[in-house]
Amino acid sequence: MPSPAIVYRIDASDRITYVSEGWDVFAGENSSGGVTAADVLGRPLWDFISDDTTKEIYRQVLARIRTGRRMSYSFRCDSPACRRLLEMQIRLHGDAGGVEFQTSTLTEVARELAPVSQGDGSVGAEELEPGLVRVCGWCNRFYADGAWREMEEAFPRLRLLEHPERQMLTHGMCEQCFERMVGDLSAAEAAGTGG
Ligand SMILES: [Zn+2]
Question: Would you say domain 1-112 falls under CATH 3.40.50.360?
Fold first, then answer.
């Protein structure tokens, strides 16, 4: 039986205005203390995000959403008992800068009991290696699978939002922005020395 969708919303100043049951999936590592909806309503989203990498990701996501774009992507989130394919949708809510996060279950399949030695190649969350994620500080694209990509495309590949604690962001500059900046600099230089 698929799990119900999980929804939470924030207002324009990033304060939590609504959470549905099961919301603490998003709170990740911070949810261990039995935090209830009453504890979080009215508080800034940032109170529940402990590490800087995740904060940076959420900042970029929110900035993107508030320009009117939507994000939606699917990701694996397995439990010991079942394999799950989830979909996260992030979009504007209302017309005052509020944002809604919704995670729904696309498929949920009970795991077959199989001998451990007979793995199928899938990797559980606990086994993922920590990764260093490159993000361009100029165009905010992420380097994933050998190319610079928009976050919608990069996040599922990097598994960023579902396992942020295993990712480290490093800011740099992509080749395209580098070339554009070099071009701008030499244009400015030419203009400056031309008079
Ligand atoms: Zn760039």
Answer: no
Q: Calculate how far, in angstroms, residue 151's C-alpha sits from the geometric centre of ligand 1.
A: 12
Kindly provide the b/e burial profile for residues 113-126, where b requires at least 16 CB atoms within 10 angstroms of the residue's own CB: eeeeeeeeeeeeee
Domain ranges of the chain: 1-112, 129-195
Q: What is the pTM of this model?
A: 0.60
Residue 174 burial (10 A CB sphere; 0-12, 13-18, 19+): buried
CA of 192 to the centre of ligand 1 (A): 26
Q: What is the pLDDT of residues 33-89, one digit of tens each?
A: 556 777 889 999 998 777 777 788 788 889 889 998 888 877 766 666 777 777 888
**Cα-to-centroid distance, 173 and ligand 1 (Å):** 5
- Judged by DSSP in three states, 72 sits in strand
